[in-house]
Specification:
Shape: globular
Largest sheet: 2 strands, antiparallel
Strand order of the largest sheet: 1-4
Radius of gyration: 14 Å
Oligomer: single chain
Helix content: 55-70%
Structural class: mainly alpha
Number of strands: 4
Number of helices: 5
Strand content: 5-15%
Length: 110
């Protein structure tokens, strides 16, 4: 994602507009994104519904290994990732923490 796309996603998740995303906002955002991406409304996300997403992240989230993601798996992965991003361990993430995490993930894939 570009910084602009990342900023838009962060702003969408920051529902109380305080400049931070807390765990409740992160989970709520995961639920909204899941609903938007579940094109066939079967309650699961498949690789076909996630063509631009990182396959490694999808494998990490697919806890039961069935090749598709349930809402629970997506929410659990968002919680896991939230704590990876919250580098200063203050219970909220800033745009800068998200940006740095995104850059590090991108660089690790190279």
């Amino acid at each position: 994602l570009t910084d602009e796309q990342l900023r838009a996603a962060f702003t969408a998740a920051d529902t109380n507009r305080d400049g931070h995303v807390d765990i409740d906002e992160a989970i709520a955002d995961a639920i909204l994104v899941f609903a938007r991406l579940d094109g066939n409304r079967d309650g699961f996300l498949t690789l076909q519904e996630l063509p631009r997403h990182d396959p490694e992240r999808i494998r990490r989230a697919d806890r039961d290994g069935d090749g598709k993601l349930s809402l629970g798996e997506v929410a659990a992965d968002r919680v896991y990732e939230f704590f990876l991003v919250d580098t200063n361990r203050n219970g909220v993430v800033t745009f800068e923490e998200v940006r740095i995490y995104s850059v590090n993930v991108r660089n690790a894939r190279k």
